[in-house]
Design brief:
The chain is of the alpha/beta class. Helix content is 37%, strand content 11%. It has a five-stranded parallel sheet with strand order 4-5-6-7-8. Strands 1-2-3 form a three-stranded parallel sheet. α9 links the parallel β6 and β7. α5 runs parallel beside α7. It is globular, with a radius of gyration of 17 Å. The chain starts with 16 loop residues before the first strand and ends in a 5-residue tail after the last helix.
Length: 296
């Protein structure tokens, strides 16, 4: 299969699936990007009792399941005041686990030209895409101040994955820990998709409460996809399930949000949905191969 020019070490013919959305929470030095209050609240929201994921722990988890995984962290230092867990450490870890891991980069959009240079530097280091979380990073994606960042990503020929919809991060805390949901309205990405038709955009998660807008955007814009992470499939909005079976069968992607949603639970709950058999290989692997530039 094609893909050698992207320096993937993964045998894409052999893996069962590609999880497009997994988190590396801590680097090899134990640094976590979230403060203690946010870590505690997140664990409560997702009912987690595990240690923070590292690049090697994620690799072993997915290796056991014969599944490839896109891994990333999030740089929100301007807003949070805390540096991210090291993206360089993540890239190095993905390189030593390149039989299963695909590294995405991260830059803080609020740093301007520094973010543009960060995109270019991380591409040189080997990232295969970029992750943004507008609510955590505190920016409106369609503000033209951030367009140079998207230009750099488009020039590199790699995709951009944006959190959309409600987030469990900060949920239940006073003021949601300062996290503003409106920044993750997918309609803001419609502008970006229209202005950068050469940029592949993935809207992460069923974008509650804006799912209908999300479906419309992915239907209208050839360069926009949806990943199905962050929710157990049994809670998927029914209109999203219908669209995945029909007009969006080539536009939706398997994703879990691991460790917040376990792969085994996601797949078990997904099997209970009334999905067409011919759609399954598209969702679990073929659509992701196209997003990642492995296939046309």
């Amino acid at each position: 299969m094609a893909g050698e020019k992207y320096d993937y070490g993964i045998d894409f013919d052999a893996v069962d699936a590609i999880d497009i959305h997994t988190h590396v929470e801590a680097d090899d030095h134990g640094h976590h990007a979230y403060d203690d209050e946010l870590i505690t609240a997140t664990k409560q929201y997702f009912k987690l009792d595990s240690e923070p994921t590292t690049v090697d722990s994620v690799a072993e988890y997915y290796r056991q399941r014969n599944t490839a995984a896109v891994v990333f962290t999030i740089d929100s230092q301007t807003v949070s005041g805390r540096p991210p867990n090291s993206v360089e450490n993540l890239i190095e870890g993905a390189a030593r686990n390149n039989d299963v891991l695909i590294p995405f980069g991260t830059v803080d959009p609020l740093t301007g030209e520094e973010a543009v240079q960060g995109v270019q530097r991380q591409v040189e280091l080997g990232v295969k895409g970029f992750k943004f979380h507008p609510s955590l990073q505190g920016f409106e994606p369609n503000d033209r101040a951030y367009y140079p960042i998207y230009s750099a990503i488009a020039d590199a020929g790699v995709p951009a994955l944006f959190h959309t919809g409600q987030t469990g991060i900060g949920s239940g805390l006073p003021g949601g820990h300062g996290v503003k949901l409106r920044y993750s309205d997918p309609m803001l990405l419609d502008d970006v998709a229209a202005d950068f038709p050469e940029l592949t955009i993935v809207m992460a998660h069923p974008a509650v409460p804006w799912v209908d807008a999300q479906i419309s955007i992915a239907t209208h814009k050839a360069n926009v996809y949806i990943d199905l992470s962050g929710w157990s499939p049994k809670y998927f909005p029914p209109q999203l399930v219908r669209a995945a079976n029909r007009q969006l069968s080539t536009k939706v992607l398997f994703g879990t949000d691991y460790p917040y949603i376990e792969v085994d639970r996601w797949r078990r709950d997904f099997e209970a949905l009334d999905m067409k058999p011919e759609v399954l290989p598209l969702i679990f692997k073929e659509n992701a191969l196209r997003v990642l530039g492995v296939t046309a």
